[in-house]
Amino acid sequence: MADILKYVQAPLMIAVLLFATACSDDGPKIEEMTPEQINLVGQSQLRSGDAKEAARTFSEIERLYPYSELVRLGLIQSAESHYLARNYTQSRSTAQRFLDIYPNDVHAPRAQDLVARSYYDDLDERGLDGRNARLAWLEFKKVVDNYPNSEFAQSARLKMDLVVDRLAAREMAVGRFYLSHAHYAAAIRRFQRVVDNTYLREIDVTPEDSDETVSLYDVASEQATNYVPEALHRQVDAYLSLGLEGEARDTAAVLGHNYPNSEWYADTYALFDESGIVQEPPNERFGTASELYRRTFLGEWM
Question: Per the structure, how many domains does the chain have?
Answer without folding.
Answer: 1
